[in-house]
Predict the structure of Lipid droplet-associated hydrolase.
Amino acid sequence: MTTASSAPPSINPAALFQSPVQAIWNVQGENVPTLWWPAKEQSSAAGDKEAHHTVLFMIPASHLGHSAGSHVADPSRLYSLEEQVESKIAILDRLRETYPPNTRFILAGHSMGAWLALRVLKARPNHGIARIFQLFPTIHRIADTPNGRKMKNLFGPVSRSILGGTVSTLRFVFSAPPILQSIVGFVTRQDADMAGVTSQKLLHSSVVKNCLFLAGQEMEAINIMDKELVEEHASKLVFYYGKTDEWSPIENYYEMRDQFPKCKSYLCDQGMVHAFVLGHGEAMGLLVGSWINEL
């Protein structure tokens, strides 16, 4: 399988999948928000006696400690990177128990979620993982990226305490949800729905502290690429890089293209940024839909 710099024609994923399923699952004693998409129809390859079920699992949508709500038992707890890995593996195990044995699972990982997806694949190589979409992936040398060098000092305990306290103060001063939502929308340029999610679910002291704590661990752990794993499962991996991404620089695209020609490696030509959900969510959805349609 050769690499490419341009993507196939876009397909609306709504034509392929049912509405997303969102649930709070108790996984290894923790209540975890989980998000996945079951396919609309079963597909059957030529010569197969049984139809295939397909499920798309969004890795970043289920980070421990990264959302606030009644499901959080201990808001003060900080979750390690390895706990996040074990949680994702356990969620895949739970999904595998939920669907028939021949189900194909598609994992989608954004940023460090791409690294998590590889860890899940390594732990469960025979669990029906058919594809992994690595979107703006940070799977190695994250501390040596432009953003890693600029921001690494924000992830220590003092910075976590200061930023967490600042968020608590903002929530107290602007306690009315519509006001806080408007401020978040103005600062981040998110639309009303996204700003509402950010202000009510994410902009909490506990969430900010967990995000920063996890980022600090990423700086240490996400360093050396597991090249043997990538080579072994190259046919399952799709990498998508940005031209101006300071978390996963364009050099990473050329490295993957040249070292792993059996993977599919794409370089964005649509002007998407690392945080593509801020303005390019629909475009990315269409792109991922096209990749799924190729299965």
Notes: The radius of gyration is 19 Å.
